[in-house]
Amino acid sequence: MVKPLHGTDGGCYSLSLKTGWTGPWSKIIKMLKHLRDEGGGGDLRSFFPIRVGDGSNNSFWHDVWKGDQPLAVSFPRIYALDIHRRVSIRDRVMVGWSVDSLRRLPRGGIEHTQWEELSELLRDFHLTSFPDRLGWSIDVSDSFSVSSARFIIDRALLGTGGCEIT
């Protein structure tokens, strides 16, 4: 019911709702906005890091799957040279990482440095037969739980002082 009313992401990534909409989901989105803006909760997506499996569901350049930002941001000169910018991780790995996927060879300086750094980052990367999934960075189990979500919400809204809720 959420997707038809608020879009395919339910407003979770954009943290936006249709104007004038009220109800439980609007309260959830408002809480997420509060956590992001005032509670120190950061970007909601940062709690759900991508765990690459077969690489078919995530963008090589645009999703955060290696490091703490998209590869297009980390390696902008190589991104600008790439022929296939809208490629999945799986497709990029299957084709291979070589200068053949670039419009031209990297020139010296920053282009060469970024090429070497990106090549090193990808050198030992391998896909698995499992599907890609989202992790849960709040809990050591890497699996979402209501109690860990409650912990982060309470910590953001109530601070670290005061009485403990069990």
Structural features, described:
The chain contains 7 helices and 2 strands, in the order ααβααααβα. It has 166 residues and is mainly alpha-helical. The protein has 2 domains: 2-49 and 135-157, no CATH class; 50-122. Strands 1-2 form a two-stranded antiparallel sheet.
In the predicted model, the low-confidence regions spanning at least 5 consecutive residues are 8-13
Tell me about the biggest sheet? 2 strands, antiparallel
Number of strands: 2
Q: What oligomeric state is this?
A: single chain
Order of helices and strands: HHEHHHHEH
Cα(first) to Cα(last) distance is 32 Å
Structural class: mainly alpha
Number of domains: 2
Question: Fraction of residues in helices?
Answer: 25-40%
Helical element count? 7
| CA radius of gyration | 20 Å
The general outline is elongated
Q: How is the largest sheet built, in terms of strand order?
A: 1-2
Q: What is the typical, i.e. mean, pLDDT?
A: 79
Beta-strand content bin: under 5%
List keywords for this structure.
about 170 residues; mainly alpha; 2 domains
